[in-house]
Amino acid sequence: MTVKVGPELVERHVKSSKLLHTAYNVFTRDREVQELWKMSNVNAVSRLLYNDHGPVHAKIVAGSALEIMDILASSGVEPSSLKDKTAGSMEEAKLIVMLASFLHDVGNSVHRLYHEYTGALLSKDLLDRLLPQVLGKDHPYLYTIRQEILHAIYATSMDAEALTVEAGAVKIGDGTDMAEGRARYPYKRGKSDIHALSALSIKRVELGRGRNRPVHITVHMSDRAGFFQIEKILLPKITSTRIARYVEVEAIIQIDGREERIDIKP
Length: 266
Known about the structure:
- By secondary structure, the chain is an alpha+beta fold.
- It is built from eleven helices and five strands, in the order E-H-H-H-H-H-H-H-H-H-H-E-E-H-E-E.
């Protein structure tokens, strides 16, 4: 069974967890979070003519990352926060994933350059204000959970290794948001170059259980140009995590009624 990567996926995970449901409402309804998402798109989309970095992208990444976490957990992969005792339950490990996904691009509200680093700095005060509303001000893991979230935000940078299972899920989830022009490799709108062509070639991305590895990512495309997105973004994001050995990628190309399947090992 596979699920389609999209903004609706996070809602399914939120419905199954009281903690995630509470956090979802606290963070998505907060004015500052909303304004940071808005400004991230003002800079990224309006001023730089890049792809979406706002609330829709945040929710897509959260849903994808949570799905990856569920698959890994059901395959016996222990979340780093539980192993290292920086969180107290699987729900809290998933909270780290969801909130890091929500906030990973807010640094774009300042500038695209070094936005992962800036986003981690901005998110510290946000989390100090909002996490107690979710966990309670006396929660024993309040500050370690905050730091795990900040690590996962920072580690979405191509130059940073994701040191935890949670951060790896967020980083790979970020790379899966590339269907129907939602390319993770930025391209300028209106240009018919390889960036735009590759983005438009990808029709949908699906997640499921793998044949040889726990997580299977399927990228459906209408043209080989779609490999540009896989090679430039998805694969580097996977290989810069510590969960790469648990992930397999398959490209399915459909051209003129013919289908070609290509297995890609990160």
